[in-house]
């Protein structure tokens, strides 16, 4: 006779937990560091105006850093909204529609942000 030392737990779902948790922390850290970089440049001596603001983002390294942060922000928003839709919207069709709408919105925001960034 075998001894049963408890029941086996059956875990179901998409198994995104640790990956999503880690991606949220990494993207949040990148956004916080970017905020510090921009604040340091904004607080430099001199009058704050369009020329100074455009000058901050005119360097290629800053454009690249900003692009990485935009991608991080979009990923951060996607993971958060996807989790909200999965947790609180039970009808599958409505959940799928909301997820598609979220993706379309985020891709549109990405395109707009890149236009603004490379127009400076």
Question: What key attributes describe this structure?
Answer:
mainly alpha, 4 helices, 120 residues, 3 helical TM bundles of succinate and fumarate reductases
CATH fold annotation: 3 helical TM bundles of succinate and fumarate reductases
Supply Rg.
21 Å
**Which class best fits the helix and strand makeup?**
mainly alpha
**Helical content band:** over 70%
Question: How many DSSP H or I helices?
Answer: 4
* Shape, per Cα inertia axes: elongated
Proportion of strand residues: under 5%
The largest sheet is: none
What does this protein structure show overall?
The chain has 120 residues and is an all-alpha fold. Helix content is 75%, strand content 0%. It has helices at 17-42, 50-56, 60-88, 92-119. The protein is elongated. The termini are far apart.
Brief rundown of the structure:
The chain is mostly helical and 120 residues long.
Write the layout of secondary structure elements.
Layout lengths: L16 H26 L7 H7 L3 H29 L3 H28 L1
